[in-house]
Design brief:
The longest helix is centred in the C-terminal third of the chain and has 11 residues. It contains seven helices and four strands, in the order βααβααβααβα. It is an alpha+beta fold. About 40% of the residues lie in helices and about 20% in strands. The protein is globular, with a radius of gyration of 14 Å. The two termini are about 15 Å apart. It binds adenosine-3',5'-cyclic-monophosphate. The site of adenosine-3',5'-cyclic-monophosphate has 8 residues, from loops.
Length: about 140
């Protein structure tokens, strides 16, 4: 499997629950390495830029409001098959549909407050990583 990088965000609900450590433990135990981290509190406008791809969706305004409601932890993860592996560890977007043992099944309350975000493709991972991090912030662990 190819080595990839992907963006993970621990969302305001999971930061508020103090489960940052539990989420990162799952990444590390499954072969993903953290190569950059940034805690920040986005404005609604910044959240809107990050999620611009969803701007026509009915949930866009609520999504931007939620993502700017408190601090988040953005991370770059590196490892074999990182994009899909991260998505498997997160579970389905709607926690009601998330498989047992996934991050969302264990920590998410609703489709909006769903604990984590992860890039959905290698192409989007590149775009999302560069939203939060510059080249000098990325410290390969290979
Ligand atoms: P995320 O992976 O961060 O990508 C976009 C977010 O929009 C998603 O997680 C959900 O938290 C949120 N969202 C709210 N309603 C929906 C929906 N119907 N379909 C997909 N995403 C939704």
């Amino acid at each position: 499997m190819a080595i990839q990088r992907t963006l993970s965000i621990i969302k305001p609900d999971a930061v508020a629950k103090n489960v940052i450590g539990d989420i990162i433990r799952r990444f590390e135990e499954n072969g993903l390495s953290v190569i950059a981290t940034r805690m920040t509190h986005l404005s609604a406008k910044q959240a809107g830029r990050f999620y611009a791809v969803h701007k026509e969706r009915p949930f866009y305004k609520d999504l931007c409001g939620f993502m700017s409601s408190g601090p988040i932890l953005a991370m770059t993860l590196e490892g074999s098959n990182a994009v899909n592996l991260n998505r498997q560890l997160m579970g389905a977007t709607n926690p009601k549909e998330a498989e047992e043992g996934t991050i969302r099944a264990d920590h998410a309350n609703s489709i909006d407050a769903n604990a984590v975000h992860g890039s959905d493709s290698e192409e989007n991972a590149g775009i999302e990583i560069s939203f939060f991090f510059g080249d000098l912030d990325l410290n390969s662990r290979l």
